Amino acid sequence: MNEIVTLDEFIIKRQKDFQYATGELTGLLRDIGVAAKIINREVNKAGLLNILGAAKVENASGDVVQKLDIYANEKLISCLQNSGECCGIASEENEDFIKVDGIDGQNGKYVVVFDPLDGSSNIDVNVSVGTIFGIYRRKSDKKGDVQLNDFLQKGSDLVAAGYVLYGTSTLLVYSTGNGVNGFTLDPTIGEFCLSHKNIQIPKRGNYYSVNQGYYLKFDVEMRRYIDYCCDMNLRLRYIGSMASDIHRILFQGGIFLYPNTRKYPQGKLRLLYECNPLSFIVEQAGGKAMNCKLNRILDIPTEHLHQRTTIAIGSPDMVDEMKSFVERYTMPPISKAEENAAI
Length: 343
Ligand code: P6P
Known about the structure:
By secondary structure, this protein is α+β, with helices and mostly antiparallel strands. It has two domains: 7-196, Fructose-1,6-Bisphosphatase, Chain A, domain 1; 207-329, 3-Layer(aba) Sandwich (D-Maltodextrin-Binding Protein, domain 2). The protein is built from nine helices and 15 strands. It has helices at residues 7-14, 23-43, 46-54, 68-81, 220-231, 242-252, 271-284, 316-329, 336-342; strands spanning 86-91, 98-99, 110-118, 129-137, 160-166, 170-175, 181-186, 191-196, 207-209, 235-236, 255-258, 269-270, 288-290, 308-309, 311-314. Strands 2-1-3-4-5-6-7-8 form an eight-stranded mixed beta sheet, sandwiched between helices. A five-stranded mixed beta sheet has the order 10-9-11-15-13, sandwiched between helices. α1 runs antiparallel to α2, α2 runs antiparallel to α4 and α5 (220-231) packs across α8. The longest helix has 21 residues, at 23-43. The chain starts with 6 loop residues before the first helix and ends with a helix. The structure holds 6-O-phosphono-alpha-D-fructofuranose. 6-O-phosphono-alpha-D-fructofuranose is lined by residues 118-119, 211, 240-242, 245, 268-269.
């Protein structure tokens, strides 16, 4: 029988692999694991929330039942506020970043960014959702308060990133820059146990993942690539929860696209707490991630907390193919003279 390795044991064992070999990051990852277990408990009761919520029933811990993404946000924030390793938080649910006071006068060395419950609209129809997180070392003087610039770092500066998938089972997948490992929650012991060691993304797969409903709103080069995916008889799979769609691609291969549309000219997905952490994971697993102008996601400067980006992410050979379509079919900008002549 294989030995059970819990998330805590694995993090501590692998601590020596991490260039900042200190206990702080270990503690932070464990705190995120605790928050994930608490969120999982409520997500699993989502079907009841409509009943409980309508009745304004209090749950076991005395909290008034509320929307799950707000609940998840509050649980992650409180777990991190008590960790002592985190000096600041940026969340999809909060307009501004949150300063976290030090414990015993010691400020934490890290800032944490997260989407607490990505794809939360799926909850009402019992479809999987996810928590996405990223961890940076603070850049500002650790004696002072956390600054906005501590968050406005490139994805290539991440020291750790991961996601939790609340699906048919609850899975936590993370990397500290030395490969990607997955842990499945065993509810009988309340522990995340190592279940997917050193995850490697297939070089290509039979799936492409895009909201085909926007096809006519995509630029021509994206439409040509999507036509190619159809010609190659790839199967379309799109859950509407980025963590879920990327998780499938991580294991089965494929490509996920969210190009620019008229409604989202810069792309819909957020760079800081959706695209960077998932691109960090996919690259660590041997995949690629770029925006639709062919810039590596992890190299894109982060200019504000809720900055959006386009993205093409997944199996390396498929991202390269997408790149060749963009290079071949992107329309050159029309010069003013040509524009005037066309009138
Ligand atoms: P659309 C969820 O709201 C999300 O941020 C991602 O998780 C998901 O991939 C995307 O938006 C879905 O967007 O426009 O296809 O509904």
